[in-house]
């Protein structure tokens, strides 16, 4: 892969195009955007090809290729870029301004492709050559070791920056979209944003806890059952934050810049240079799609990735065993401290043991996180995916973990769930 960006590219202000992508007029609206940043392509002797990717379940992703005669596929890929249009209604749960800031921040550290332009409901960025992984690929040792190394680099070198907020009176207008009354009688009251930002006292906002609080506020409440579920989830978040937000961990304030959505579709395996064989160099991967990236405990990001070994079907029997998790974390720790360039010697085995225990402790939290998310998606998404069932599976992971931790499963004489059994399996 070519370097994904340079210092100048990262420093330049990203262009905004006052146009939108329209799913109903996909090619026409896409080409309007393409010709805005590549006007010479409108009169090229090549053919503009739009290749649709379907690895995600919230956005539309198109690869834009100018198939000019005489160019190799590699040469065409160098000129290609991606058009990503945001899913309908997703601005309710994703801070799109923050996503753009994340992308630019990662560009500065050569960890993201160059962001070419933004438009009303999406962005255009350079194409990264490589192969998108599948859940089965994530379980291959050469891939998970590469993921561990790259994730450690993210966590070690990218700073956690607080959001630059507009004055709260202006910022809070977005809360009109929340599905419940604000913590005060008026949903326009700045107390809503304050309640979100302060859900984990002492932690800079945004962070993984503020994200979950925002999502709970955005849950649908059109029935008594939905109101009851929202109240239950709010109670659980109120319980989780003091339990988990102040645990010791890697990074400043025990937070690292986390991807938070490291599923297989967001892991790209770099092509090997000519003459380089598998035996002569390890695999290298890159991560794409930064819409959920936010400061988070490293243990959350890692345990969230481990859950993705089972894919969207949540095949719990395929999650990493204790020995696999231990080896992944050892690889991660070696990379993490290598990127920190510390002068003092580090006991890597002790650090790996601590992180292993933290990841084990955090194993239920991703189910809570994505369960809330899926409940919202079930009401706003136009994509053909059974979000409601997915929500029940993911929240079920959380409740099974909680029942294991507090002993209620054992005292009730219930069987251990498959996920919990797999998590406890040594090899």
Low-confidence stretches: 1-11, 167-188
| SS-based class | alpha+beta
Shape: globular
Overall number of strands: 11
The CATH class designation of the domain at 7-126 is: Alpha Beta
Mean pLDDT over the residues: 89
The count of helical stretches stands at: 17
Q: CA-to-CA gap between the ends?
A: 35 Å
Proportion in β-strands: 5-15%
Summarize the amount of helix as a percent range.
Answer: 40-55%
Strand order of the biggest β-sheet? 1-5-6-4-3-2
Q: SSE string, helix = H, strand = E? A: HEHEEHEHEEEHHHHHHEEEEHHHHHHH
InterPro entries: Kinase-like_dom_sf (IPR011009)
Family: Belongs to the choline/ethanolamine kinase family.
Pathway: Phospholipid metabolism; phosphatidylethanolamine biosynthesis; phosphatidylethanolamine from ethanolamine: step 1/3
Pfam families: Choline_kinase
Describe the structure.
This is ethanolamine kinase. One of its GO terms (cellular component) is cytoplasm. Its EC number is 2.7.1.82. With 427 residues, this protein is an alpha+beta fold. It contains 17 helices and 11 strands. Among the domains are: 7-126, Phosphorylase Kinase, domain 1, CATH 3.30.200; 168-244, no CATH class. 44% of the residues lie in helices and 11% in strands. Helix 14 runs antiparallel to helix 15 (387-406).
